[in-house]
Amino acid sequence: MTERLQKILAARGVASRRASEKLVEEGRVTVNGRVALLGDKADPDHDEICLDGKPLPPALSAHTYLLLYKPAGYITSVTDPRGRRTVLDLVRNRIPAGGRLYPVGRLDYATSGVLLLTDDGDLTNALLHPGREIDKTYESAVIGEVTAAKLKRLAGGVRLSDGLTAPAKVRQKRREAGKSTTRTVLELTIHEGRNRQVRRMLAAVGLDVIWLKRTSFAGLSLSGLKPGEYRELTGEELTRLLQYK
């Protein structure tokens, strides 16, 4: 099946689609020995596609990798005995025939944001391994006085029931006027994966959470997605993630 060259290059992990377009425009891509033009298509299974005279690398993986913007009100689980909606309900038509997809890590029922789903168990284990210290960035609207002392505590480590949290990056993003009170939006970046960690950290310093959203996980962001939407990882994103395996 023929596809646009920039899509093929991105799927092979060469570059993003936009950067791949530039490679074609620069005359660095050939198809069956002919310099390709922007807009050209090729069949990656039958045509010889080269970049700077070298054949493209093989396809990255036969696995499925989806980036989901999880809405609040869904549980991060494959099934739920209580009959609640799960994140898999949002991606049913992309589950491989005869296979399964699994969420990488968890977001609690009321939390929205970035969630990776895949059938690549090795990558899942690598990304969740504590030694990898994968960054996770959250935004949260809170009620309560956000003092410099509280920000310092959050950044330096908060004592929870399961021990002291690791240092975090914390900053105040903005103030929002609510119906009855003013709320503060904070951004926190952590690399641990404790249960409900951000909510517990904020509660420990006297801040009540109105909403919580994960905006980034392992460098993957919500850009271009609305709650409930998903997309496949780009070749560039996948190449970067596979380096953790």
TrEMBL record:
Q: Could you tell me which Gene3D superfamilies the record lists for this protein?
A: Alpha-L RNA-binding motif (3.30.70.1560), Pseudouridine synthase I, catalytic domain, N-terminal subdomain (3.30.70.580), RNA-binding S4 domain (3.10.290.10)
* Name of one Pfam family that matches: S4
Q: Which CDD domains match?
A: PseudoU_synth_RsuA_like, S4
The keyword RNA-binding belongs to this UniProt entry's keyword annotation: yes
- Give every RNA-binding S4 domain span: 3-61
Give the range the annotation lists for the signal sequence. Answer: none
Give its E.C. classification number. 5.4.99.-
Classify the source by domain of life.
Answer: Bacteria
Q: Which GO terms of type biological process are on file?
A: enzyme-directed rRNA pseudouridine synthesis
Single GO term (MF): rRNA pseudouridine synthase activity
Per UniProt, the keywords (alphabetical) are: Isomerase, RNA-binding
Gene Ontology cellular component list: cytosol
Q: Which family does it belong to?
A: Belongs to the pseudouridine synthase RsuA family.
What is the protein name for this chain?
Pseudouridine synthase
